[in-house]
Amino acid sequence: MSATSDSYACDPAFPIGPVKTKMYGPYQIGDRVLYEKPWIFVVSEKCRQGICNHCFQRGPTLKRCTGCGFSWYCGKECQKASWKFVHKYECPIFKNALASTELAVPLTIETVRLCLQAIIRIKHDKSWNLPSDAFPILPNRTFTNLMHHWEEIQNDPAEMEFLEVMSSYFYKTFKGIADYGDLIDMDQLGVIHGRIRINNMTIFGTYGDKLGVGLYLSGSSLDHACLPNACPSFSGTLLNIHTTESVDCFDNLRLSYLDKLYFSKPRREMLQKRYYFDCLCRACVDESLDKRMNSVRCSNCDGVILMEPFSFESEPCQKCAQSCSEKDVENVRQMLELGRHTQILLSEAKKSDDHRRVLSLSEELNSKLRKVLHPFNSLVISTSLQIACSADILGQYAKAFAHFSELSTTYTKVHPFWTFQNAEILMKCTTRGLIVKTAPKEQLELLKHFVEAMKIVSVCAGRDSPTFAYYKKFYEDCREAP
Fold first, then answer.
1. Are strands 200-204 and 238-243 parallel, antiparallel or unpaired?
2. How far apart are CA 371 and CA 206, in angstroms?
3. Which of 10, 121, 390, 480 is deepest in the core (most CB within 10 A)?
4. 3-state secondary structure labels for all residues of the chain
5. Cα 3 to the chain's mean position, in Å?
6. Per-residue CA distances from 13 to 32, 262, 439 (Å)
7. Nearest in space to 414 (alpha carbons), one of 448, 390, 380, 461
8. What are the C-alpha distances in Å from 300 to residues 127, 153, 319, 372?
9. In whole numbers, what is the pLDDT of the chain averaged over residues?
10. How confident is the model over 37-72, as pLDDT tens digits?
């Protein structure tokens, strides 16, 4: 039995994707299983002056709130909706904070603004502890029913220090404006912060860029799996979740809480530290995934050798049956250590948006890795992706195309096929290839990658999504071009 809403007619000229919302299982690949408005949400600091802070849409002319000077809106409709939602109470607090350099800086921290919105809703909104606007409605998913792990958080010195600073900050910014004292003492604020910290979701846009963070009461009910069977997407701030595999029931739907796939040991450590659970999903108990992610180039024939990344035990080459020597193992150790060191340098370069530095570091690392590791190795794939993206930003399209083209065949060797990252790789392989390749036959061949990208988007986001509309328009323009 199933309940559906929002039906759309299929366009036979494009890959057929799901556009219905199905309340009950069993689910087929591409079924939309949930959509929901956020309980609270904030725009990221990088996007605050570039998109509407309420609907998250880009507009030609955004207008700053004249009351606080902090929030930006695309028009009166969104400004009024935001005012009714929380900004009526945020506005004087923002204004008070911006009058002081000491108090202004914390407003750029998303967690601080999320906690502020939660405090405002609890204090002023009579419906604050009802389920959020969603389909299907999960009646038990209210803010007070969310897990908070306050007991575990109290054992984390860094988290407790942050909470003490945030509590003190709120006392200062609320002074003379409103009395929220009962909600900002350490115990109350710790529980509020815990619920937000454990259950929030990143809101991303049509191009995969981070737009903000939101708390989705129903969406956060889905548990984690490192290889998920469902995928979130967003239309503005509206959350949609689609299946990427056949799933028998809602309770067995799984999202990934991580933005990329790591080796099992650091992956499980991150999940334990961030969410306080030990992951025992299929990817974590299957040792073969780690070995595939750490595939090594055979020194005899350039074939694939699968190697465990921590014990460094390996299987014979799949092509010539040669085993790794001690020297081979030592070379792999050195490459993994070089990768860890370079990732630190890359993180520093990314913080300052130094794309030339990122490109230089990635190319240097990638050239060394390829001498020892196989092209299917996850570290080779991730550095190739970094080269492609950085070269693309810098307008070096031939270099970007070369790496996107290779990734179109290697990325899914260790990563799931039905992901927005894979769709972007295939899309960029086409769009950058059309710049580099001029022969009509070659350009027509490139469009096959784009059709594959559209299939992925239709499953992961739905044919009624802004992302699919963006892909569809480009495809139509290419077909109409002479």
1. unpaired
2. 37
3. 390
4. CCCCCCCCCCCCCCCCCCCCECCCCCECCCCEEEEECCCEEEECHHHCCCCCCCCCCCCCCCEECCCCCCCEECCHHHHHHHHHHHHHHHHHHHHHHHCCHHHHHHHHCHHHHHHHHHHHHHHHCCCCCCCCCEECCCCCCCHHHCCCCHHHHCCCHHHHHHHHHHHHHHHHHHCCCCCCHHHCCHHHHHHHHHHHHHHEEEEECCCCCEEEEEECCCHHHCEECCCCCEEEEEECCEEEEEECCCECCHHHCEECCCCCCCCHHHHHHHHHHHHCCCCCCHHHHCHHHHHHHCCEECCCCCCEECECCCCCCECCCCCCCCCCCHHHHHHHHHHHHHHHHHHHHHHHHHHCCCHHHHHHHHHHHHHHHCCCECCCCHHHHHHHHHHHHHHHHCCCHHHHHHHHHHHHHHHHHCCCCCCHHHHHHHHHHHHHHHHHCCCHHHHHHHHHHHHHHHHHHHHHCCCCCHHHHHHHHHHHHHHHCC
5. 29
6. 21, 38, 25
7. 380
8. 68, 51, 10, 12
9. 90
10. 999 999 999 999 999 999 999 878 899 999 999 999
Whether 453 contacts 231, CB under 8 Å: no
Q: Measuring CA to CA, how many Å separate 35 from each of 17, 32, 163, 218, 464?
A: 16, 8, 32, 9, 13
Q: Which long-range contacts (CB under 8 A, 24 or more apart) does 469-476 make?
A: 470/206, 471/423, 471/427, 472/14, 474/427, 474/431, 474/450, 475/14, 475/447, 475/450, 475/451
- Encode pLDDT of 282-323 as tens digits: 899 888 889 999 999 998 998 999 999 999 999 999 999 999
Distance from C-alpha of 434 to C-alpha of 55, rounded to nearest angstrom: 34
* Pairing state between β 200-204 and 254-255: unpaired
Residues whose CB falls within 8 Å of the CB of residue 99, separated by 6 or more in sequence, listed in order: none
Q: Does the pLDDT value for residue 13 go beyond 80?
A: no
Query: Is 186 exposed, middle or buried (CB count within 10 Å of its CB: 0-12, 13-18, 19+)?
Result: middle
Torsion angle of C-alpha atoms 452, 453, 458, 459, degrees rounded to 10: 80
- Give pTM, 2 decimals: 0.89
Helical axes 378-393 vs 355-369, angle rounded to 10°: 150
**Residue 296, strand partner residues:** 305, 373
The answer to whether the CB of 339 falls within 8 A of the CB of 346 is: no
Q: Are 255 and 241 in contact (CB under 8 A)?
A: yes
Cα separation, 127 vs 85, in Å, equals 11
Mean pLDDT of 107-135: 93
